[in-house]
Amino acid sequence: MSDATTDMSGGKSAPAAHGSLLSESPLMKKRNAAEARFKMYGLLAIVIGLVFLIFLVVSILRNGLPAFTQTVVNVEFTLTQEQFDEAESKMLKTAAYTEYFVNDVTQTLQQRGLDVDFDGDTIERVMGKVGGDLRTFYRENPDQIGQPVEFELSAASRVDRYLQGQLTRDMVVDGRFLEVADLDLVDALAEAGIIGSAFDWNFITGTDTGVDNPGGAGIGASVIGSFFMMMVVLLLSLPIGVAASIYLEEFAPKNRWTDLIEVNISNLAAVPSIVFGILGLAVFIQFAHLPQSAPLVGGLVLTLMTLPTIVISTRASLKSVPPSIRDAALGVGASKMQSVFHHVLPLAMPGILTGTIIGLAQALGETAPLLLIGMVGYVAREYPDGLVSGLLDPNSAMPAQIYTWAARSDEAFFEKAWGGIIILMIFLLTMNIIAIILRRKFERRW
Amino acid sequence: MKDMIPVDRKMSTMQDSKISARGVQVYYGETHAIKDVSVEIADNTVTAFIGPSGCGKSTFLRCLNRMNDTIDSARVSGDILIDGEDIYDPRVDPVQLRAKVGMVFQKPNPFPKSIYDNVAYGPKIHGLARNKADLDEIVEKSLRKAALWEEAKDRLDKPGTGLSGGQQQRLCIARAIATAPEVLLMDEPCSALDPIATAQVEELIDELRQSYSVVIVTHSMQQAARVSQKTAFFHLGNLVEYDDTDKIFTNPQDPRTESYISGRIG
Q1: For the domain that residue B206 is a member of, what is the CATH number?
Q2: Which residue from A49, A176, B59, B77 has the highest number of Cβ atoms inside 10 Å of its Cβ?
Q3: Is there a single domain that holds both residue A83 and residue A38?
Q4: Number of domains making up chain A
Q5: Are residues A57 and A119 in the same domain?
Q6: What is d(CA A109, CA A103) in angstroms, rounded to the nearest whole number?
Q7: Which residues does A366 contact at the CB level (< 8 Å), separation at least 6?
Q8: Do A332 and B67 touch (CB under 8 A)?
Q9: pLDDT given at position A388
Q10: Rounded to 10 degrees, what is the CA torsion of A387, A393, A394, A395?
């Protein structure tokens, strides 16, 4: 020390070596340039990230939003008592209703100077089984007979896409779904202004349909499936994960065994999710004989996957509680358990909750393990009717549903898949917002 | 347990000795941190432990309420008797011991709870209060003893972490005395405080001597000289010298003590 000081004060040339402070020395210039370059790289990285994000969001919204609207035909229709009696006495009752409807629409169009030739089959291809719908309506509401009733009939998804310009006449191949001639009717309806678009609640609340009816497919049933799975995951992984972490972090002796467990937990978090799927298939379905495609099994598999995430984040947040708090609690004579449960755990709570919700969000979007336990490809045609059936009856889940739709050959399902992604993203966003709110709320100020 | 071994108590060598440590050795893994320390600490006295950093004074202090138990690698041998009872006896529950031997730490560490809850926590878990009124009384008494009542009485429901550093440390002292301990251990209680807060805490320590046996670890020799009646000088894990404070500072017997208090080592 003392040597250095004498050197510094003794060397008379010291100020000269530094030169003027008003001009940058060459080394300083280099250092500043390096710093500026580094800032540029950082900025560039952020810009690239943002561009990708914007691209992603825009393409999801562009492709997915049409799934939330549907083309509807608004027709005012009046059925007289005689017509009703006549139709009900016929052999093909719904066909009779379809015929009335065809006549009604033809008249409406003719009133507006539009002359199109079409029959019941055309109507069925464009707007589905109208005859059946009408019959059901009038049988349930006989008092409406003889009065004009406004019907809102949803058009087929191909008509949707034709009107949106995604489907052109030369792309249409005559078949049981749509014929080129049918589009004349669609054009006429559009010109008459009785075709329009409406928000498609059925997409959110409805259930999946078979491969031949993309228009009617909804994600509702699989949202419920995902909900039951998440309940299973939450109820199992939160208590097990937190208990395991508290034991490992606060009580377990530090020895070779706990080290081994620690390494294994960290490694489990990196295991590909499909491995958990095949484990679930072997253990829960083949060994324990739990039902296939059931949200309970899905939940169990996802619990296995979420546990390491929760254990790791819980241990990290327990570790981040300052040791002075543990000392303080022990110092006033709290037992180990009291110090953990009264002081450490409340302080670790925001971290635990955030970790749990992020684990849940990860599990919510997981598809691969569901492939193996039969949730992908299962057509969820109906809602479960209770808690037990919700857990044990076969169902799909949101990501599985999206995958199923995207894998179907009918292009009309693609739009549904994009729409499903929007719904999934909304759920994930909500969960993340809840995580942020909880963290803010529970956070202690020091 | 007191009633079970009355013989031991009478055998205590010094009549007014509260704590007696005999041949205490502490190891952290391979490190020999405390080497054969024997010391008698009197009741109603302030005893200061001084010495350079890493000399083992804090380690020895933490032996007195078995806080070293929380460190896995720490091993303690020898006898430490409080009121003639060996606190390392297997029958002794350290939790019960710590209610009797309170501790104040270097850095103020109030719980992130209200001032009231900070003080009330100890009495609550030890069942010292039968009802809310009892608890209120204990809280008030403890805060008064810690000279914090006047400043805190209107903000008992405010977080303890919102107090100033000196107030926080006095809150920690109030928290420690709320469990009605007989011995109060203080590990450099003023090292994070400014001179004014230090003066307040020192004044408080002097008052606490009336009811407790106070053991204080300090870096500041002036502080040891101001507040303590007895001083122990630790160096490299050894207890070099232990005597009346006046004697240590005016007429040290050991050359190492003399070097330290005159600023040549440390």
Answers
A1: 3.40.50.300
A2: B59
A3: no
A4: 3
A5: no
A6: 10
A7: A273, A302, A305, A399
A8: no
A9: 87
A10: -20
Q: Does ipTM surpass 0.90 in this model?
A: no
User: With contacts defined as CB-CB under 8 Å, which chain B residues touch A334?
Assistant: 95, 121-122, 125
Chain A residues with beta carbon closer than 8 angstroms to that of B103? 327, 331
Q: Where does a domain end: A190, A216, A242?
A: A216
Positive or negative: CA dihedral B89, B90, B96, B102: positive
The answer to whether residue B238 sits within a structural domain is: yes
Domain that holds residue B44: 6-261
Q: Has residue A18 got a pLDDT over 60?
A: yes
Please spell the DSSP secondary structure of A150-167, one letter per residue.
EEEEEPPHHHHHHHTTSS
| Last residue within a domain, chosen from A197, A216, A235 | A216
Which domain, by its residues, includes A258? 220-442
Say if A8 falls within a structural domain.
no
Q: State how far the Cα of B129 lies from the Cα of A248, in Å rounded to an integer.
A: 34
Torsion-angle region of residue A19: left (phi > 0), alpha (psi -120 to 50) or beta? left
> Between chains, do A333 and B70 touch, taking CB under 8 Å as contact?
no
Q: List the structure tokens of B111.
A: 């719980």
**Phi and psi torsions of A443, nearest 5°:** -65, 135
CA distances from A279 to A262, A370, B96 (A): 21, 11, 48
The residue to which tokens 């060994």 are assigned? A287
What percentage of chain B exceeds 70 in pLDDT?
93
- Whether the predicted pLDDT of B131 surpasses 70: yes
For chain A, give the number of residues: 446
Specify if B153 maps to a domain.
yes
Q: What are the φ/ψ torsions at residue B108 (nearest 5 degrees)?
A: -55, 125
Interchain proximity B109–A332, CB inside 8 Å:
no
The structure's pTM equals: 0.78
Q: H or E stretch including A149?
A: strand A148-154
Cβ-defined contact of A330 to B179 (cutoff 8 Å):
no
**A309 and A382 in one domain?**
yes
Residues A165 and A56 in one domain: no
Are B138 and B119 a contacting pair, CB within 8 Å? yes
pLDDT, position A7? 46
